[in-house]
Design brief:
Length: 229
């Protein structure tokens, strides 16, 4: 069984590099239109509110981290306007503290979103991939990534279950008591409120850890076991 102390729980918050469709360059607009070519139920412009989930058109504004040390769950949020600086800080943490064959990354829907998004944005910023993200060509069983949504699927590939729904069924406090992922771009560009995004991101990380523990038959973290940094 994987030791909890060897897991780094993560969550990322992303926003479009350009807030509005009209702000795209002519070339950028053409490339977005082509990417949305088969989304025929709406125009490419109408689909642009989804741009924050595509690494080619979006950037990371916050990475939330959580890990267990000395019986306490310690959290940290790396946030800012400079994506390269965020990724550098994140990479340094991985390279210094989570780099052995016993270490794992854990995220909800991480294998389809967080982990590939991080890899792509590191490469876009011409930065090396930390060891735990060097997964190109690896066999699935050699990739040290844990995904709570995958664990909940039990092999059912059609099943998508949100972090919030799992929190509800396991009687874990909801992380969505203020904002949700669909509002991050507005909070970032209109409110310019990174602190609110950091708080939301860390709530997701705490919920993620509690859900992972529940999926493993463990008692979830108590409030007094969490240290917010």
């Amino acid at each position: 069984m994987i030791k909890l102390e060897n897991i780094l729980f993560i969550d990322i918050e992303t926003v479009p590099v350009h807030y509005k469709y009209i702000e795209l360059s002519d070339e950028g607009r053409e490339l977005w239109n082509k990417k949305m070519l088969y989304a025929t139920e709406m125009s490419p412009e109408a689909h642009y509110d989804k741009a924050g989930i595509f690494a080619e058109f979006a950037k990371i504004v916050c990475i939330g981290l959580g890990y267990i040390r000395d019986g306490k769950f310690r959290t940290k949020a790396i946030a800012g306007d400079d994506e390269k600086d965020i990724l550098l800080n994140f990479s340094q943490i991985l390279q210094s503290h989570f780099f052995t064959e016993e270490h794992y990354l854990c995220a909800h829907n991480g294998k389809e979103f967080d982990f590939p998004f991080l890899c792509r944005r590191l490469l876009v910023n011409r930065m090396p991939l930390p060891k735990l993200l060097q997964i190109q060509g690896f066999k699935p069983w050699n990739v040290r990534h844990l995904d709570t949504m995958e664990l909940w699927r039990f092999g059912d590939v059609k099943n998508f279950t949100s972090l919030n729904l799992l929190a509800h069924i396991f009687n874990i406090p909801s992380p969505k008591d203020d904002i949700d992922g669909s509002q991050i771009a507005r909070v970032y560009y209109e409110e310019k409120n990174l602190e609110r995004i950091k708080t939301y991101c860390i709530k997701d990380v705490v919920t993620l850890a509690r859900i992972y523990q529940s999926l493993k038959g463990l008692n979830p973290l108590k409030d007094d076991e969490i240290i917010y940094n």
